[in-house]
Amino acid sequence: MQIYKACSINGEIPVPGDKSISHRSAIIASLTKETVIINNYLFSEDCINTLEVLKKLGVKIEKIQSSLIVHGNGLEGFNEPDDILYVGNSGTTIRLMCGVLSAAGFFSVLSGDRSVNKRPMARIIEPLARMGANIMGRCNNTKAPLVIKGNNSLNGIVFKSDISSAQVKSALIFAGLFADSPTEIIQPEISRDHTEKMLEYFGADIKYDGRHTIIYPGSKLQGRNIYVPCDISSAAYFIVASLILRDSHIKIKNAGFNPTRASYIDVLKKMGAEIKVKNQRILNNEEVADIEAWTSSLEAVSIGTEIIPNIIDEIPVLCVAASFAEGITEITGAQELRFKESDRISVIASQFKKAGADIVEKDDGFLIRGKRDLKISGGTYQSFSDHRIAMSLAVLGLKADEEFNIEDSECIDTSFPEFKYLLKKAIENH
Ligand code: S3P
To answer: How far is the centre of ligand 1, averaged over its atoms, from the C-alpha of 6 (Å)?
Structure first.
């Protein structure tokens, strides 16, 4: 992908559907015994992989115009797949489906691309095994491919996790739906709660409050139609671009505004960003809002452990904002970034430094000495096949005086296939 210096960014950006909510909508719809219509589903590679996995398990899914129709037949309606279940680059698909398949009465194998098969899986295998699941994985049960021999008599557990991960929590919630007693999950910090919210909306017996979730098994899931809000994480690239470019003003309508996801807006506001959030409302048990952002003079900020799970996917693009914010921004407690699609701490530090940013890598975050008039150098940059790195580099490149190339930018299709087109359309180069 080649990026050219942009003067400004303007207009209404039709950001596609939320990735986390799309995955969950397809999985939860499949677990009902009803037909569920999902609108604004994200047809990105990751979310298509979730659909392909569900289809291999015998779930009937159709796409009619822009709607997805899922003919749920319950977990008992799933069939043993006659091939491996390939999740591509999607950590959410493998971890959430591992929870579901732990409770299915058959054998299955889950595998992904090089990045997924390098990511830590002990974090789901260990607690699921405590529930009675039979899961084996490569590297002494720590990595995918994963082999699961489903067990339809799982037991509920109390699980005090030492990491705050919505994928781990969701895997346990899905397994817990089919256990013989309640499953209780306590995490150190609050992680995104889309699984809880959607299951509640579908009538499951679930209680959640901050770091604490309890799923009671046995309730019948009702079919409810879903409109997937626009992805607030994808919106972040356009919002940060509008803050750092001159004469800019963008709008995003129907953005997901779940507080466990929208915290980066508060961080940017603390940095002095001119952002307005309007028309806040509830749509299928999820908060949504319209967001407007304007060119701003940014100041440095301190970001600590407690908020990290709520901004985890936006840290790469927040590092772009911090590079153009006066003063020293400190990000701590973000060691989980090392276990994403790439080691995002080391990749951001190396690529941003090369571009001219003053950034120091720490074990659990960064120190960034920002300048409003920072000069960005042209050249060839590596995304390390990580979509969020590629899109963050694209925003950084909008400020480069010379040609700015990003290698392996196809990875953007995992979450935001329309990104390049929408960016090109919204920027003005003169
Ligand atoms: C996700 C949870 C987060 C996030 C990922 C999507 C989800 O991962 O980074 O992009 O949909 O549950 P962790 O659970 O590993 O923190």
So the answer is: 31
Q: Quick one: CATH architecture of 2-16+229-428?
A: Alpha-beta prism (3.65)
The active-site residue, picked from 113, 290, 313, 386, is 313
Residue 209 a catalytic site member: no
Average pLDDT across the chain, whole number: 97
Return the ligand 1 atom nearest residue 163 CA: 16
For residues 402 and 391, give the distance between their C-alpha atoms in angstroms, rounded to a whole number.
Answer: 18
What pLDDT shows up at residue 430?
55
Using a 6 Å cutoff on CB, does residue 167 contact ligand 1? yes
CATH architecture of 19-227: Alpha-beta prism (3.65)
pLDDT at 428: 79
Q: What is the mean pLDDT of residues 340-346?
A: 98
Distance 322 CA to ligand 1 centre (A): 23
Q: Among 96, 84, 76, which Cα is nearest to 147's?
A: 84
Q: Whose CA is nearest to atom 9 of ligand 1?
A: 313
| Predicted pLDDT at 66 | 85
